Amino acid sequence: MNPAEWLRRAAALHPDNPALLRGTETVADYRAFAARAAAIGGALATRGIGPGDRVAVLMKNCTEYLEALYGIWWAGAAAVPVNAKLHGKEAAWILEDAGARLVFATPDAADGLAPVCPACVEAVVVAGTPDYAQLCAARPLPVPAGIGGDDMIWLFYTSGTTGRPKGVMITAANMMAMVAGYQADLCAHVAADAALYAAPMSHGAGIYNFLFVIPAARHVVPQSGGFDAGEVLDVSRAVGRVSMFAAPTMVRRMTDHAKAQGGDGDGLDMLVYGGGPMYLADILEAGAVFGDRFAQIFGQGECPMAITVLPRAMVSDRAHPRWRERLGSVGYAQAVSRVRVVDDTGVPLPPGGVGEIEVNGPAVMKGYWQNPQASAEAIRDGWLRTGDMGALDEDGFLTLHDRSKDMIVSGGSNVYPREVEEVLLTHPDVAEVAVVGRPHPDWGEEVVACVVPLAGDGVDAAALDRLCRDNIARFKAPKAYVQVDALPKNNYGKVLKTELRNRVRGT
After folding, report:
1. Position 142 in a domain
2. What does the alpha-carbon distance between residue 234 and residue 240 come to, in Å, rounded to a whole number?
3. Based on the domain organization, do 109 and 190 belong to the same domain?
4. Domain check: are 317 and 284 in the same one?
5. Residues 357, 452: one domain?
6. What single DSSP character describes residue 146?
7. Which 8-state DSSP code applies to residue 138?
8. For residue 405, what pLDDT is reported?
9. Rounded Cα distance, 259 and 5, in Å
10. Distance between CA 231 and CA 353 in Å, rounded?
11. Are residues 383 and 418 in the same domain?
């Protein structure tokens, strides 16, 4: 099933419904939205781009993002969403690995990519330029190209702890399962509803668009193109019936802003939080300020937004004798998924046992792009090994414990220490380095590098910072560099990152 069929149907049934909004201004109804997607699909087809090809979207949040996305699918190609906050070199590596033939970009992202754009890219089409307008005015494909359930439509690159990012192959059937899980466990949206995109559309926030295209509902991008608590609350009040995905740090900032301004979240309908640990005190306070508006989803790129769910009724429940434990969990298995916790040998653990979380079901990825070894390691007997540690209780509620991959979650974005460490180790004055997360009141965690200098004179922190900013995204760059004489290690030479995290808490 081609997702573009949902847009075509919405435009046929509800052509005059407002579709794309910048702030409170409607810039396209469903008739225009579908027409632009069909024209982009036709322009891509004219270039010979179709089923089996990959087209990247390197855009900050904007209404053109959805036009490009559906244009790619209209042509039958697979979309490669790339985080617009990445350094140009990082984005270029992804484009080359994916073999992307064309890139849709916003101006700033295009500028960063220009010096390092790989040869596989035939064109970079920048939103807001005559080139983009020309695509939107091209001869449209009358109907979307045929896409089968097992065909890849979304190639999402997720960073790993052992080197380069891996491309997660998400099929049309995977996406349909995600939609079914959301509708079964959270709600089925209607035309009067609105999706607000404040978190990056290249990630979880973006793939929720289907839930709003299907009923011909509204898609709202803030004028800033990003997250500002005051702007989100103002736009929600003006637009009404707004649902959005938010990282826990975003919820915290919205709560603080509303309290300071005396607001109550008027205009917000449902706020789905996920992408990192939500502190119990934070969700309790958010509920006290905004009321019954919160739900939680736990997922990852390999099983997009489809592992567990904590519906709004349970987030708001205070009658159940174990409501605090449930509120501190990430919920129970979604209707389309099975979840278990296993030991080191893959044997399921009894309730209360802490081990690796595994998930099985139709939303689990097809595998990693051009990486059969990694695919085999990640999926064992049909079960996706998430790399996250947790425990299930007797009722099936899952509580997260530690992250086995040492991932740092800063402001809702994932930072994998190995990527940062590899960059820092290229500095001639660095002998060893270990990167860990340190608690931060606004961002959840911030990145800290513990550096062992090669010589006694130490290392210039400013030089290390420049090195990082020249090679990786700014949000991955350490916020502090702590020089140490040696890294703590166990008998096998493994760095004891738990000990380092404890050390940097007080620095």
Report:
1. yes
2. 10
3. yes
4. yes
5. no
6. P
7. S
8. 62
9. 43
10. 43
11. no
Helix segments in 137-247, DSSP class H:
172-185, 204-207, 210-213, 229-239
Residue bearing tokens 């069929």: 5
Residue 292 CA from chain centroid, whole number: 25
Q: How far apart are the first and last CA of the chain?
A: 53
pLDDT digit string (tens) for 195-211? 999 999 998 889 999 99
Instruction: Compute the distance between CA of residue 453 and CA of residue 222 in angstroms, rounded to an integer.
Output: 45
pLDDT at 142: 95
Report the relative pairing of strands 338-342 and 294-300 from DSSP bridges.
unpaired
Q: Please give the Cα distance from 102 to 111 (Å, whole number).
A: 15
Q: What are phi and psi of 77, to 5 degrees?
A: -85, 170
Domain that holds residue 147: 4-389
Give CA angle at 329 (495, 274), nearest 5°: 80
What is this structure's pTM?
A: 0.87
> 214 in helix, strand or coil?
coil
* DSSP-assigned letters across all residues of 261-287: HT---TTEEEEEE-SSPPPHHHHHHHH
Contacts of 89 (CB under 8 A, 6+ apart): 116, 471
pLDDT per position as a tens digit, 478-503: 999 999 999 997 644 668 888 898 88
Residue 345 and residue 457 in one domain: no
Tokens of 334: 């979604």
Residue entry with tokens 């073999």: 99
CA distances from 209 to 205, 218, 363, 413, 428 (A): 8, 10, 16, 20, 46
CATH of the domain at 14: 3.40.50.12780
pLDDT of res. 249: 83
Is 482 within 8 Å of 506 (Cβ atoms)? Answer: no
Placement of tokens 């975003």 in the chain: 250
Instruction: Assign residue 450 the CATH number of its domain.
Output: 3.30.300.30
**Which token pair is 162?**
């052992």
What backbone phi and psi angles, to 5 degrees, belong to 499?
Answer: -65, -40
Do 241 and 96 belong together in one domain? yes
Of 236, 234, 243, which is closest to residue 208 (Cα–Cα)?
243
399 is a domain residue: no
CA distance 100 to 53: 7
Number of domains within the chain: 2
Contact present, 192 and 204 (Cβ < 8 Å): no
Whether residue 296 is contained in a domain is answered as yes
Say how many CA atoms lie within 13 Å of 279 toward its Cβ: 14
